[in-house]
Specification:
Structural class: alpha/beta
Number of helices: 14
Radius of gyration: 22 Å
CATH topology of the largest domain: Spore Coat Polysaccharide Biosynthesis Protein SpsA, Chain A
Order of helices and strands: HHEHEHEHEEHEHEHHEHHHHHEEE
CATH architecture of the largest domain: Alpha-Beta Complex
CATH class of the largest domain: Alpha Beta
Number of domains: 2
Helix content: 40-55%
Oligomer: single chain
Shape: globular
Length: 393
Amino acid sequence: MTIALYILLGIAAIPFIYYFLSLFSSWKYFAQSPLAVPGKPFTPPVSCLKAVKGLDPGAYENFASFCRQDYPEYEILFCVDETDPAVPILKKLLQDFPNTPIRLLYGPDHVAINDKVARLDRLSKGARYDTWVLVDADVRVEPNYLRTVVAPMQNPKTGAVTCFYSMAMDNTFIEKLQEIGMMCDFFPAILVAWLLDGVKFGFGQTIVTTRAHVQGFGGFKAIENRPADDLLTCRLVAEQGFTVELLNYVVRTTPDFNSMKDLWVKRTRWMTVMRNMRPWGHIGLIFTFGLPWALVAFAVHPTAAVAAIFLGGYFLWRVLLTWLVGIHGLRQSGLWSKMLLIPIWDFTAFLIWIASFTRRTIRWRGVDYILRDGILTLPKSHSSKSASPQPES
């Protein structure tokens, strides 16, 4: 082989270094963070804040799971437009759980580029309690949820808590593909970030924090023209000198996509935001994609040894990593039957990464936003309706 070929094969082997780092960080995290169980009794009054727009599959059960919490004192606040299709479901919730303090706030009280954050701002103003649990509308939880996720806040050094999530159902090919992607790709990358830089991010599926910590970065209004409000909330809490804890606890989310196109739009939105927030780190992801590099290695030197080392090694590393994170660490069932989907996910993720360099807009809940220098703007053709304070019920 020529020197150039050796160099190319060496470059093609770089993803294996990343896989080793992913495996090491995942092993270290789960070794010191056993599956979360309700901790010491620490149950301050809690306000659960939910910004709602549109009707997700299984919406009633998602909402109702928060009404069945084994927790002494809490309230649930929803911010939703009066004409939203979720309103009848929320009103039924009020009837079915009369002993659970539930309040509906109709619409944000001002116009903002990021409508979701405007809703969080209104929810924060209406919250009776100072400990907040911010949760996306598509999340479904167990009765021990609040006791578990709030417990780490007993440590005065902890400023926020977030946790893992998985699919509440995976009946279709697209749902299975998304689930295996989370376990073999997204969460291992998160655990590498945990090892190298600590937790300076959060997931919208659960963020526990306090009124004081949010006010410490200027309140939600300070980020209402920014994307990735969940990530920013925890990052801005961490910048105040507090720690953000990634809890080894899994909540369920219902799928919000029905086709490969929907999944593509969702993942491309996330990758485009990450490219805008961390441009050099996003470019560096090229060295984390093992499948295309393994194919390149085999294409330039098609021997049995290269096939075994690069293609076989790639798949074995990915299976081992998926087992460690998804099965051993997060105790997810049914993953073995999805292992053959790993190469399909990895190829799809690589194409999404490429596509993210071509995007200047992101779509959320039917609205296209222009993303420029980390700031969201609306196209001139988009006419936004003025928001005015609405009553609550």
